[in-house]
Amino acid sequence: MFKEIKNKYIRYITIFIFFVILFFCALQLNFLWLFGYSPTYTDIKKPAQRVGSELYTADGVLIGRYFKENRTPVKFNEISPSVIHALVATEDVRFYKHNGIDIQALGRAVVGMGKDGGASTITQQLAKNLYRIRYNKSQGLLGRLPLARTLIPKLKEWMTAIKLESNYSKNDIITMYLNTVSFGNNTYGIKTASRIYFNKQANELDVPEAAVLVGMLKATTSYNPIKNPEKSFERRNVVLSQMNKYNYLSKADLEKYKAVPLKIEQGNVDDGSDGDSYLRAAVDKYLEKWCNDNNYDLYEDGLKIYTTIDSKLQGYAEEAVKDEMRILQRRFYSVWGNEDPWEDSERKKVDYPERAKRNLPIYALLQKKYNNNTDSIDAYFNKKKKMKIFSYKGDRDTLFSTMDSIRYYGKIMNTGMMTMEPKTGKIKVWIGGIDHKFFKYDHVNQAKRQAGSTFKPFAYLAALESGMSPCDKFTDKPVKIAYQDKGKTEYWEPKNADWNNTYQEMSLRWAMAKSVNTVTAQVTEKVGWDNVVKWAHECGIESHLQSVPSVSLGPNDVSVFEMVKAYGTFLNEGVKTDPILVERITDQENNIIEEFTAKTKRVLSEEIAWLMLYMFRGGMDEPGGTSRALWEWDLWKKNNQIGGKTGTSSDYVDAWYMGITKDLVTGIWVGCDERTAHFKNGEQGEGSRTALPIFGKFMEKVYHDPNSGYTYGPFPKAKVPITRNIDCPTPVQQTDTTATDSTQIDSLAIATPIIEEQQPVQPKAEPESQKVEEKKTTEPQPKQQQTPPATAPLTRKEERELKRKQRQEEKERKKNGGDN
After folding, report:
1. Which residues contact residue 55 at a Cβ distance below 8 angstroms, ignoring those fewer than 6 apart?
2. Cβ contacts of residue 676 below 8 Å, gap of 6+?
3. Of 24, 237, 263, 698, which residue is the least packed, with the fewest Cβ within 10 Å?
4. Which pTM value belongs to this model?
């Protein structure tokens, strides 16, 4: 067709233009994958600025961000004019005159072979920042050729710049540029840079500060005002001179500003977001599937994520955890002193540091490097070096070897705590541990530990489901249960925590309240341990549960998350509710993208659920109830009711408390990450002395805040007829309180404040006589038998009344002239 053009010059020009057009079409379409990716029309209309997502509590408090590039976008009117002027004067003085390509600057660059500066406009730089045109994934097969590797990305920048200019105003382009450009130190965008380097908003920057930031764009490391203040100062003055040259700054102002020293004021912002708190990491995991299903990137799509967390409750829980864990850690050190705390179930010492050393990945590498020479390997692990370690007084710098570090952290106690509103499924508190910086493992949903006696309620639930009532009675007596193991008959003989049997007839409610192992074992045998497992799963336990005679005493590993979910079923009238951690997600303009609601399923009748709450209240109501230590806190106004269950695993390794109020369910686990580290006895390490005080302190803070939204009050009344017998008050008999061993009490008085390191923490004497919480065990341990009191312990009120009567009788005897 070109032969029809008679004039050969016009014909050649036409052929040239045709092939140029054809080339750019092939470039845009990535013909035969030769040229790599080019932004599409959709990409231009919806530019991805790779903005980090923000994480909020339910009440709107910003608690963190997720980002690969630390940036927060701003609008044009939120940027100081000084920044705009400095940028245009320094980077692209004809920005408001060209259409994306500065022909004059391009010609100068070609003639001067680049010696007089480049020809890249602000729009071209924006194209490069937005679409990463020069990245490997954007280069096609021709990108392997040296000349094409430079030329093709430049041509794509031109094409993209022209598209941007045709779709956006100049102010939009310069705003997008300032929102995407890097200012070093993983700092992207003018708003983040203003905050990091000057602790200001972008619209508050003055002329010298604007010049500092714009000057950094030439080389973010070389002209960094924190790392290289002298070079930054020189570069700032160059920018000021450019502003004066192009009439953005008067000569007088230039001289004044050039004499101003750098005034850097670093702002307090996150320098990373790779899960830098338990909650942020948990939300990241929680939204993983949602992001995949809906094609969102949590780290680049600028989402606003509103969690279900209540900032007030979260704060109160963190205070309670920090306060109590500090006390428990001091108690743990005092108990063991210079002795290693790592022991097996037979109280034989375990060389935990050696085992931990051998499990480190570097150990195998050192074996190869040193040809399995143990002396060289040990020398490596025992070499002292500077490191920062965790302490309750703040991060501490020290000289530690790797073995020192293993031994130190092997004695640190940790915790996991979660609070949920069962009616809605909303998680209000999430504490994965004592310090995410040093302990990454989340003890709410990642860690699974033996539940101890907190698992017993599922045996009593199975009993109620089988037709029993809270008043049905069993006797606290020795038990021997036969079971089949691999075709062989075995016998299990559970013991109570104090190794004694009272031979008292006890109602189910009293037995659960006192956490009596022998009664729980009898109930389990009667209903069948398979049924205990079944009802635990029905209520929300998802972990594998081994169906064995001792299942009700909590030998299986479960998470705090699961236990709170399962206990929530009782408070929610028998409806199992899947906990939710995120309430809604919006875009940057607060348009709702997704709202989350909890999935629910009825698994218990309303009557059974109410009866279980009645059973849980026994921990406070029944004589010797293991929750009675809660009397130490101000929790009992306006007829307030609390149900709960303590739990302690074998050898006092794991301690639990599950607390239920009319609105909330809270689960708390306390223990060392290393399972061979434990307390020595129940007075030091059982659930009522470790986990329960955290609950007491937390709820006291919540109730004392009139704005928390949670108030004192009784549990809801039954909405359905209660057909089972619940009228069986436990007889309270007078007893000689001095005959009760104070070390066999399952409660904790007000904790002793920390005075100085390595001083033993002595719990106060208890205000009432209570039995020690029953602890799962399969092997009897040598212990001197104690004669238990033949009657039930007195309540505090009854004990005071008894003492008053004794004093009165003593006065009467003296008045009458002597004893009878």
Report:
1. 62, 63, 64, 65, 66, 279, 280, 283, 305, 307
2. 341, 342, 343, 344, 350, 352, 653
3. 263
4. 0.73
